[in-house]
Every structure is written in C-alpha cells, then in structure tokens.
Amino acid sequence: GIQVEQSPPDLILQEGANSTLRCNFSDSVNNLQWFHQNPWGQLINLFYIPSGTKQNGRLSATTVATERYSLLYISSSQTTDSGVYFCAVGPYSSASKIIFGSGTRLSIRP
Amino acid sequence: NAGVMQNPRHLVRRRGQEARLRCSPMKGHSHVYWYRQLPEEGLKFMVYLQKENIIDESGMPKERFSAEFPKEGPSILRIQQVVRGDSAAYFCASSPGGVEQFFGPGTRLTVL
C-alpha cells in the first residue's frame, strides 16, 4: 500500500520563527489533506490540497503531485501553533480511506 | 452548519463490557469513516460506510468490532468484550462526496 513519510518528526522553535514541514508519499493520490491536532486532541482541517498551492493566513501549503511531496509552511509561529501536524493521502486506487503519516510534533516556545 | 458530532467524548469500560460510539455526520454528508488513534501514533483507517452499506472494512479487526450507518440516525461503532488494547481515541469523519474528509472531536475510550 501507499507509504506516507513526514519530516521532521519533532521541531522546537521560538515564537515568531518560520517552519517548513514535509510530506512524501509513494504513489499517485487523489486526496491530500493537512491537519493540526492540538494539545487537547482535536483534529483541525488545515488544507485540502491534492495539487497546487493554497494560503490561509500565516499558513500555506504546496503539493507537487508529479514529484509526490507536499510542504506546509508556518510563518511567524505562535504558541497556539503547537501540536502535531499530520499529512494524510487518499490513493487513486481507493476513493475512500486516507492514509496518515506519523506526524510532525511542533513545539513553539514563548 | 454544525460539524461532525461524536458522543460520548470520553467512555470508560471494564474488560469484557461493550462500547458503543456514535457519530453524526455533517449535514448533507452521506459518507462516514472511522479511524483509530493509539497513544502517540497516527490515525489508522478502520471502516468506510454510506447509508445502510459498508463500503470498505479492510481496517476493521475481524472479531469484536462492527459498524453500521442506518438510514435514520447516527453511525455506530460497536466494540464487544473490550480489552485493554482497545483503549484509544476513535475518530469519525464525514464527506459529501468521498474525497475531502472532515473530522469530529473523537471519543476517548479507556478500558480498565
């Protein structure tokens, strides 16, 4: 089945710093989503981005489907950005399940 | 438009009891998915349902677990004779057309 790898696994930054999170996947996809799981365990949809670039405030994402990777950019980090960021992909062979990566744990220090 | 709703948010069961987890999808969404998250891990797919039909249950354990999405009412994930290894967060997601998924707040199951 499709493999999803996220890097780095852990990231510690000072408030105000910028960061780039990476998601590599091993096969063609028809769905790619980025989520933020906050310290209370809630999963928050950030982007639905199977290809192209999107921006939402301080966050932006780019997926290069032909090269099988996606990047999540966080600018001017705030302590509320802390948590785990997951990338999840939906393989072309299935219109149903999405496969999650193991996540990047981001800690923003004040 | 209310988001995906799950209840209960926390559930404690003793070994051997049954656990019933409920999920109400977003309005207009007819596709429901269940995922399980073990401590310190990512989410793993369990089952995909549309109204009254199981479409993909490739991630469901073969025994003790079942899911349904009746014509009326919420989707139910049922775990019979729970064991300590079933302790996890169970997330439900819904979709209007089978691609982008929207997640509920999860049910945290603790088995004593």
Main features:
heterodimer, A: 110 residues, mainly beta, 6-stranded mixed beta sheet, 5-stranded antiparallel beta sheet, 0% helix, B: 112 residues, 4-stranded antiparallel beta sheet, 11 strands
Terminus-to-terminus distance of chain B? 37 Å
Q: Tell me which protein chains meet in the greatest interface and how many residues each side has.
A: A-B, 22 and 24 residues
Count of DSSP-assigned helices of chain A: 0
Spatial shape of chain A: globular
Would you report the number of β strands of chain A? 11
Low-pLDDT ranges of chain B: none
**Compute the gyration radius of chain B: what is it?**
13 Å
Report what the structure shows.
The complex is a heterodimer of chains A (110) and B (112). With 110 residues, chain A is mainly β. Chain A is 0% helix and 59% strand. Chain A has no helices and eleven strands. Chain A has strands at residues 4-7, 10-14, 19-25, 29-37, 43-48, 52-56, 59-64, 69-74, 83-91, 99-100, 104-109. In chain A, strands 2, 4, 5, 9, 10 and 11 form a six-stranded mixed β-sheet that branches. Chain A has a five-stranded antiparallel β-sheet with strand order 1-3-8-7-6, with no helix packed on it. The N and C termini of chain A lie far apart (41 Å). Chain B is globular and about 35 Å long. In chain B, the strands form two sheets. In chain B, strands 2, 4, 5, 6, 9, 10 and 11 form a seven-stranded mixed β-sheet that branches. Chain B has strands at 5-7, 10-13, 19-24, 31-37, 43-50, 53-56, 65-68, 75-79, 88-95, 102-103, 107-111. Chain B is mainly beta and 112 residues long. Classes of the chains: A mainly beta (110), B mainly beta (112). The A-B interface holds A 30-31, 33, 35, 41-43, 45, 48, 86, 88, 90, 94-103 and B 31, 33, 35, 41-45, 48, 55-56, 58-59, 89, 91, 98-103, 105-106, 108.
